[in-house]
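Review form for a predicted model. The reviewer records the input and the model, then writes brief findings.
Reviewer: anonymous (R2)
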Amino acid sequence: MMAALTYETWYLGIRTLRRFLRVPANVLSVIFFPLIQLLVFSQLFQQIVQLPGFGSETSYLAYLAPGQVVFAAFLAVAWSGYGLLVEYRTGYMDKLRAMPTQRWSILAAEMVPLFFQAALMAGIILAISVVLGASIATGIPGFLLILLLSGLFGLSLAGISFIPALVTKSEQATSTFSLLLFPVIFISTAFVPVELMPDWMQTVNTWNPISHLIEAIRSIMTTGYDWALIGRSLLGMLVLGVILQVGTLWAFARLAR
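Model under review:
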């Protein structure tokens, strides 16, 4: 059974990844917003690092880059449920269900490629950041670790899009729900340190898994491996992933009855 699930997930997953990559607008729409923020904000607010809360940081580009890497990974999966919804509406899912294909491999084939999509989009922004002047203190191993963390983040967050898509069967509801998550990114430590935030934002960021991931990537890029931060980010992704994946499995079972 596991061999069949792996086989079906592999081939259906390749199709899912090709569906994403064959449309250039998919890639451009993901990297556009983080890239604009990287280019514009790093110049517009470059003097902000002189505030006491930034500590020893001397380059706002170096501070800004980790947040935009995470933002790219987020955008890579923010509307991932839309593709599954299209497959459902066009009847392709029904064709798969009519074949001797395990139902769970259909869902797995939609979700597993998201790891690579998130890692790829994050990698593009990370590479551009390095070209613009940011550095990675840990070198190539650190670069690869950032891609791994970004991919795991995308995979853990996928349920944010899949659950509303499977429950509502509405493209509009799915898109709107993803947009509602943007404030979570903007109140994270992507733009300013937590010390410069209002008290209520500091409290939110104590539990914000996005901030934990950003801080882990920031340490990898600027100072070195901080395994406490990396472990905290992995724990946050694990908790978030388990909650959202359970919801996704429930919603998919409900749809595939």
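Findings: The chain is about 80% helix and 0% strand.
Further findings: The chain has one domain: 2-255.
Recommendation: see findings above.
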